[in-house]
Amino acid sequence: MAGKSEDTKKKAVLLNDSDSDSENEKQKEVVEDDTGLLSLMNLNLGPKKKLLVLSLGVYKRSHCTEFMKFCLERFEVGIWSSAREWSMINSLDCIMVGLKSKMLFAWDQEQCTDSGFKTLENKHKPLFLKEMGKIWDKKYCNIPSRVGEFSASNTLLIDTNPYKALLNHPNTAVFPTDYKAYTVNDDALGPEGELRLYLEGLVDAEDVPSYVKDHSFGQPAITSMHPDWDFYSKVIRRHRQAED
């Protein structure tokens, strides 16, 4: 039985995806035998990053800059605010110095869905919804090269208003408690903060919905058990009627 030639060659080939960051460059070891065929060894592309969609409400807390660096290292990150564009940009300029270019996208009120209702908390404030499907739809997405990479299985919305996720798949969002300016010693975004620890567990989770379902966090999602379900069910019905 013939053995492999002693002059078998080994060479490393770098495979790059659409990003140029070093953490996205994965190395294959390629072995060329005396038949001239290439075989792949030690192939390890690793898991792709999940997508976090964050509201500006998250950034009002202490440790927000360190928290953003933490998120950008472990996830793809997009910002989605229900505020007008100028207000969102002003906020990002204050809290995202040097980091804005690393975000996948920044959406404002224009990408939200106006429900046609006012919020229960403020009868003058429009109730805007964040339809996550828009992120995955090339008709809306301003990152067409990434369409198809993200779905309900690997995208998490983080918003302090549970009603924003009324039209989304179950277990694809978490809702931290709303931050108040007078709150002292708020450490939710700190190294040992509850949100950061929660996201550390999400990094290696198989998928987003399973992780969210098995790990309760923050405010509950709005379901038929919610005390204001009669109101929110009307919001959902109007949206479905508009689609028909």
From TrEMBL:
The record's principal subcellular location, in a coarse class, is mitochondrion
Q: Which UniProt keywords apply?
A: Mitochondrion, Protein transport, Transit peptide, Translocation, Transport
Which top-level group of life is the source organism from? Answer: Eukaryota
- Subcellular localization: Mitochondrion inner membrane
Mind telling me which SMART domains this protein's record contains? CPDc
Provide the topology term for how it sits in the membrane.
Answer: Single-pass membrane protein
* Chain intervals for the UniProt region annotation (Disordered): 1-29
Q: Where is the FCP1 homology domain?
A: 22-202
GO CC annotations?
A: TIM23 mitochondrial import inner membrane translocase complex
Q: Does the keyword Transit peptide apply?
A: yes
Q: Where is the composition biased (Basic and acidic residues)?
A: 1-10
Membrane spanning stretches:
none
GO BP term, pick one: protein transport
Q: Does the keyword Cell membrane apply?
A: no
Q: Which InterPro entries does this entry report, sorted A to Z?
A: FCP1_dom, HAD-like_sf, HAD_sf, TIM50
Per the entry, what this protein does is: Essential component of the TIM23 complex, a complex that mediates the translocation of transit peptide-containing proteins across the mitochondrial inner membrane.
Can you tell me which family this protein belongs to? Answer: Belongs to the TIM50 family.
Q: How does it assemble?
A: Component of the TIM23 complex.
Query: Known PANTHER family for this protein?
Result: DULLARD PROTEIN PHOSPHATASE
Q: Under which name does UniProt file this protein?
A: Mitochondrial import inner membrane translocase subunit TIM50
Tell me what organism the protein belongs to. Acer yangbiense
